[in-house]
Write a structure and sequence with these properties.
The structure is a homodimer. The first copy, chain A, is α+β, with helices and mostly antiparallel strands and about 325 residues long. Chain A contains nine helices and 13 strands.
């Protein structure tokens, strides 16, 4: 019997697994779930696969993020990458590498959060791995699989001059939430409405998953999820496609203005341009075919890099070994 | 330009990735490889998926294992799990979470080793993730995907009374290699031939990958790869199938005798019964259908657990939080 007051070092691996498997609801495409050597999934002939990880002390701080926050965020990061290919996420594998002194409650909260988020997205938790790690180490890694249902994947390299650049979802909220936490966050008083939205999006970002399929269906020419900042991710599309992503200051302004009450003028602009972990989708569409719910941010132009109102921008944002 | 004398903290993430991508050879089924939001793979309708990780200080010690050893071993662990389902491994995703003080040379040796091993197995390195980690932390995680080519997966729960139990591959070599290292290993003098084989198998185990498909094709009723020790893994088959795995002492004896010159009598027996990380395949077959290259170890009997010559055995072996 596993209780939440125990540590991982005090329970058996199999006991812990038995106690968390109930958090993982079955999905029709999951033919063999956790508990065998590997999982087996039904696919339509092309499978999308991606992986992303979070490391305590680097990708989260326990003071700011609960186990449930970490699980929800890492799940979104992975599912957004599948969506950014035009795929429908179908399954995840979850790895926890933890100091044996980690409370069982932490591991169970993580698993419950991932299980709930996966169920909401119609995604199976198909398997995973559990390893002990040295003192203080806590690492979570997810691999997500998805299905293209016969469609071609939407890559980063297909943007054409004349295409329209559009975003689905918010800009800068996660970055603004992080800025608030770095300034002292909740400690300085109850956050305003927009501040709370930013804190929530930083801790548990959501991604417009269905919009990835929507974009693919109308012929999006390139797509990426904004994980490392608008400028940096737009620059990736520009470089892969051999074009310039020409953003409009007027189109960005409402995104900046929405954040000014949360973090002030200068930080709001910086968050919109360079805030990471947003997980909105940035795509390019043939002119005239931007689907409902997407906001136009500019156009694809000849040249290279990213501009705002014609001014070249230095891509800045998240680099894992240079923070 | 990335040089081997630098640390991960001194080079850009994208520079490092550019320097390791050439180690990953293309495979026909890889439709989109590393560098986009996710990879895309061709599959035949059912995909096998598994993940396994190694943590420095827990799963390896730098004194005993090079980066190339770690890469080769983790790759085998993952591919063996796909084989144990009767699948053909097709692709891996590789995650490295590393202290920025880690030498670039370590990361490149790891990537080269995984790339070379994957190429030998006809497996694509489809993508991965790179994260910084706190001081001293070094974690590698692989997710492997595989294809069933229309076959049913071979699970742990299909063993029937009367089936023959057989193994493909060695027993106890990795455990014996570990025992030698724990006793001082190479330091006490040049290892004998069998000792060197054990050290090699501990550092870079190989798995009989094609034998998984071979077993599935002739109707194996249950299969598992020996990752946590013969007794523990046989017990998993016994429990999942609701049967007793009845091993024969005479059939095990040659495996023990082969290791006696390496580690002595008592340790040889313990390694064969409980040594982990061997990655041989253990399967049950309808009587009379054991394929070539497999060695019979016993039979499936009514009852539960594992016996040797009728004596019940306590499954012992690797538990990640109880070593």
């Amino acid at each position: 019997m596993v209780t939440e007051a125990q540590t991982l070092g005090e329970v058996s691996e199999e006991g812990l697994l038995r106690s968390i498997f109930p958090f993982f609801t079955l999905q029709p495409g999951l033919l063999v779930g956790p508990g065998d050597d590997a999982a087996v999934l039904a696919t339509s002939g092309r499978v999308v696969a991606t992986t992303d990880s979070m490391v305590r002390g680097r990708d989260w701080l326990d003071e700011w993020s609960s186990a449930a926050d970490v699980g929800a965020k890492l799940l979104t990061q992975n599912l957004a990458d599948v969506a950014a290919m035009g795929g429908t996420p179908t399954a995840v594998l979850v790895t926890l590498m933890a100091d044996p002194a980690t409370p069982v409650a932490w591991a169970r909260d993580l698993a419950r959060s991932i299980g709930e988020g996966a169920a909401r997205a119609g995604v199976a938790v198909a398997g995973g791995d559990l390893s002990s790690a040295p003192a203080e180490v806590l690492v979570v890694s997810i691999t997500a699989l998805g299905d293209l249902a016969g469609r071609q994947p939407v890559l980063r390299n297909g943007a054409h001059v004349g295409d329209t650049v559009a975003v689905r979802g918010t800009l800068g909220r996660s970055g603004a939430g992080l800025a608030l936490l770095q300034r002292g966050g909740d400690a300085v008083g109850p956050p305003s409405g927009i501040q709370q939205q930013c804190l929530d999006h930083h801790r548990r970002p959501t991604a417009p998953l269905a919009a990835g399929v929507q974009a693919a269906a109308v012929g999006a020419t390139a797509m990426i999820d904004i994980s490392d900042g608008l400028l940096r991710d737009a620059d990736r599309v520009a470089r892969a496609s051999g074009v310039c992503v020409a953003l409009s200051g007027a189109a960005l302004r409402p995104h900046v203005e929405a954040l000014v009450p949360a973090v002030g003028d200068a930080a709001a602009r910086e968050c919109v341009l360079s805030g990471g972990e947003e997980h909105s989708l940035l795509a390019t569409f043939p002119a005239g075919s931007v689907p409902a719910g997407w906001q136009v941010l500019g156009a694809v132009a000849p040249g290279s890099g990213v501009t705002i109102d014609g001014e070249p921008q230095q891509p800045r944002g998240w680099d894992h070994f240079h923070q």
